[in-house]
Structure formats: C-alpha cells, structure tokens
Design a protein that fits this description.
By secondary structure, this protein is mainly α. The protein has four domains: about 90 residues, MazG-like (Helix Hairpins, Orthogonal Bundle); about 30 residues, no CATH class; about 70 residues, MazG-like (Helix Hairpins, Orthogonal Bundle); about 45 residues, no CATH class. The chain is about 70% helix and about 0% strand. It contains 13 helices and no strands. Helix 1 packs across helix 4, helix 9 packs across helix 11 and helix 12 crosses helix 13. It starts with 9 loop residues before the first helix and ends with a helix.
C-alpha cells in the first residue's frame, strides 16, 4: 500500500479494507467483526455526519463522510467474503435505483416533460416492493432501529396516507391531555415505596411521547431536531450556571436548587 501523500482513490480504500480483513496478516479486531457488530458503528457515523452539518463544520464533515463511506466499504467487504455481493454491486444497485426513481430526469421524453407529479416517489417505491413480492402492510418498510420519535412520525405519516389521521391539531392536543392524565393516574396508583417506573408507567409514557410526535407532525416540525435544540439550550443554560458559580470559586455541588434556579432564570433572560 502506498503511504505517500499522493491523492488516494476509492481503489486505495478498498485495498485498505481488504488488507485489514486478510487472515494471518490483517487486524485481529477487524477480522472478528460481523455485520451485526459493525452496524452500531454505521449508525453512529451517520449521526456524526449529521452533527458536523448541524455545527456547520465543513472540514469535520469531510472527515465524517469518510468515516461513513468506510462503513459501506466494510459491509461490502464482509459480503464479498461470503460471496454474496461486492462494493461494485452496491454502487451498481444504487445507481440503477436512482435512475429508476427519477424518470423525470432520466426517463423518456414524455416522462421528462411530465415532471415530478406529487407522490411519484412513493408510487415507484410501492411498485418496486410489489415486484419483489415484499409489499406487506401499510406500515412495512420503516426500520425499527430509527430514533423512536422519527419512526413514530414516519409510522403516522404512512397511516395518514390511507385516512387514519386526525383532521386538525385540536383533537391531537385533546389526546395529548388524555395521555398525560393517564400517566398521572398510573403514577398515583404506583405502590407506596416503589422505586423506578413500572411497566404500566413506561407504557403510558410511551403513549404520551407518541402523541407528542403526532403534534410535531401536524405542526410540520421535526421532533428530533426540536429535541436536539432543546438539549443544546439546556447545555448552554447549565453552563451559565457553572460559569457564574465558578466566578465565585464554587461548583454546582456547593449550591442548591434555589440558587441554581435563579441563575437558570438569568441565563434564560440573557438568551432572549
């Protein structure tokens, strides 16, 4: 492998991956990995790409995209070892799929003239599933490992397409209040002295969060993005508390809730 500063190519990356997975001379850790053990890293790298974008760090984005590409190369190499498919097959499959799903760009003159009518993407995907014999139910095809709030919105959107949806936000808010009341009632019924949440409480909390996702969908707000923003805001305000206390050579351990709540309100005021 050429270790000079010459510009590297995809072929070089594939070579690195092959070397890492070569029995006897490769990396012991890499040789032990499977699709299942690598999958969490693939998800993590996708999130790191999204984080670099959210921070507007283009230099970091370049690195994170490389890490994500390496995950694709990794899975393709393991599949090649099983004689299932290789990286070229992955590239070929996605290229053909994108051409097929964009008839308004790559299709006939008539298809290009027709443009991209509403719902064309879903219709093409449904036709693909029918061809594969994997049509399934209305809610099929939404990956279970997706972030729960994102998956909730996707499930609700699919159900809404066949009319299973509230017509406006008002009944969604009514359902939100109903689910909150049910959660409160379940908490009240928890045995005295019990620690932690019961299965019933967890179920009611899940129902409440599912309706919150529905509120976000009706408002056309990404709940994951909204929650990330709320997390960031919490971090900023708590850091303000830490900084204010540090100015007096103290930490939150040396404070109490009343003081920290007052400093929180200060941070909130300054944030506005």
């Amino acid at each position: 492998m050429d270790n000079t500063d010459a510009k590297k190519t995809l072929s070089d990356l594939l070579g690195v991956m092959a070397a890492l997975r070569t029995p006897g001379t490769g990396c012991p850790w890499d040789l032990e990995q499977t699709f299942a053990t690598i999958a969490p890293y693939t998800i993590e790298e996708a999130y790191e790409v999204a984080d670099a974008i959210a921070r507007g760090d283009i230099s970091d984005l370049k690195d994170e995209l490389g890490d994500l590409l390496f995950q694709v190369v990794y899975h393709a190499r393991m599949a090649e070892e099983q004689k299932a498919f290789d990286f070229d097959d992955v590239v070929g499959a996605i290229t053909v799929k994108m051409i097929r799903r964009h008839p308004h760009v790559f299709g006939s003159e008539a298809e290009r003239a027709a443009g991209a009518p509403p719902g064309f993407w879903d219709r093409i995907k449904a036709a693909e599933k029918a061809t594969k014999g994997t049509q399934g139910g209305i809610l099929e095809g939404i990956p279970a490992p997706l972030p729960a709030l994102t998956r909730a919105v996707k499930l609700q959107k699919k159900a809404a397409k066949v009319g299973f949806d509230w017509p406006s936000l008002a009944p969604v808010f009514a359902k939100l209040k109903e689910e909150l009341a049910e959660l409160e009632a379940e908490i009240v019924h928890q045995p005295e002295g019990a620690t932690g949440g019961s299965d019933a409480i967890a179920e009611e909390l899940g129902d409440l969060l599912f309706v919150v996702a529905n509120v976000a969908r009706h408002l056309k707000v990404d709940p994951e993005g909204a929650l990330r923003a709320a997390n960031d805001k919490f971090v900023r305000r708590f850091r303000y508390i830490e900084d204010r206390l540090a100015a007096e050579e103290r930490t939150p351990h040396d404070s109490d809730l009343e003081e920290m709540d007052r400093l929180w309100d200060e941070a909130k005021s300054k944030g506005r």
